[in-house]
Amino acid sequence: MQFMGKILVAVAINLGINSVVQADEVLLFDDFNNAVLDTAKWEEGQWTLGRTVFGNPVTFGAESGTSFMSLPLSTYAPSNPGNTLFGSNVYTKQVFARDAGLELEARVRAKALPQGVVTSAFLYNSDTQNGGEDEIDVEILTQQPSKRFLATSWDSWVSGTHGYNDQIHHSGTMIDRDGYDFRQWNTYTIRWYPNRVEWYLNNQLVRTVNAPVPDASLQVHMNVWAAGKGWEDAYNAALQPTADSSAGMNYQYDVDYIKVSRLGASGQPSEPPAPTTEVTLQRKTVADWGKGYCEKVTITNPNSSALEWSAPLPIDGTITSKWGATLTSVGNGSYTATGIAYNKTLRSKASTQFGFCANKSVSQLPGSAIKLTRKQISAWDKGYCEQVTVTNTGNSFGTWQTTFPIEGTLGSSWSAVVAQQGSSLNVSGLDWNKALSPNATTQFGFCATQ
């Protein structure tokens, strides 16, 4: 085991911040030198996450004077062969209250893992008082470049109720650092205070958020698993489970040590309040054509020193073009915006701009918002033809579908998908006319025999 001892002064070079922190008490430390899992400290998870069932027993190893615990991931899962992968999750029996401040420090590496794997060291628990889940993460996504990891905070977050990167219940940002490689040994530190959360990479401050900040007492978790299709930044279709035990591939995520410490004294943090490290963001819609729109975004550094900026950016719809920034999806319509070569570093009080265009996300219009105007355009003794005008009388952009009565039997139709069911026609638009802006119209037609 190689332990990077606590230093009293950690200089955050990229932000120009000196962080002076005294660890008052070590609450948990494990360097895994005994080559056996200490069951007085740790439990092994037995649940399913993503495409992975947990329960793969941890192993232990040593290399170049460093002893470590390995969390395995196998493509063959004995309990569900061919359907899930077999991963590992270990978590502390002890639950840690935040109090004046708590620090989690982990030295880990994600060596020789295929794309599509997620490894993590994090604090987590269900918030029974406020509902939802509280969590602070360091996650390595092997689908991403090896100079990047994900730093995320959650407070009383409820799946299906709260959005990603709403900055109230969830905030996540990809951290890029030249010279950093997640395949090598690195030390990740989370400092959790009542008014903020800080992330450090190899003793350098790389992110601070003032919200969301969890309130519930949390347990330490470490795991390795394979993400599903719903997390496009982490998923890789080439990583698949196998039903053949002899064809199973085995990988591992290595943990050198875990340390949890209490920060502050007499109920007060021992360091001054952290300066703001987040940039401010102003958005302006510069074009809107119903089915899509363009925005100009202004980023300002309000801090007293220069920084390399990044900012969460929820986007409605699918991006079609962008300029002046890199936009990285973090799932569910949320992105992280980061600067490019000419504007990635902002001086104190300086601003920069970038922009994007997107097709709007489309939901179905309610029936009350659809008005039909029917007009007979021809008739003969055995049939007739009608032209139908569809109008969106609502206040939102969306797709339309409708049902109305028909006399006779449908013969032909145009400019819509038309199907007869009994004495009714079920109609929806084609790709080019299925979505309507407020007050917009489209037309289709049909002929029927009687």
Entry keywords:
nine-stranded mixed β-sheet, eight-stranded antiparallel β-sheet, mainly beta, 450 residues, Jelly Rolls, Immunoglobulin-like
Give a verbal description of the structure:
The chain folds into 3 domains: 9-263, Sandwich (Jelly Rolls), CATH 2.60.120.200; 280-359, Immunoglobulin-like, CATH 2.60.40.290; 364-449, Immunoglobulin-like (Sandwich). A hairpin with a 6-residue loop joins strand 12 (133-141) and strand 13. By secondary structure, the protein is mostly beta strands. The radius of gyration is 28 Å and the shape is elongated. The chain is built from no helices and 38 strands. Helices cover 0% and strands 54% of the residues. The model is unreliable at 1-22 and 266-276 (pLDDT under 50). Strands 4, 5, 6, 9, 11, 12, 13, 14 and 18 form a 9-stranded mixed beta sheet that branches. Strands 3, 7, 8, 10, 15, 16, 17 and 19 form an 8-stranded antiparallel beta sheet that branches. The chain has strands at residues 9-12, 17-20, 23-30, 42-44, 48-49, 52-54, 59-63, 66-74, 85-92, 102-109, 117-126, 133-141, 148-157, 170-176, 186-193, 196-201, 204-209, 219-226, 250-263, 280-288, 292-300, 307-308, 310-314, 318-323, 326-331, 334-338, 345-346, 351-359, 363-364, 370-380, 383-392, 398-399, 401-405, 409-414, 417-421, 424-428, 435-436, 441-449.
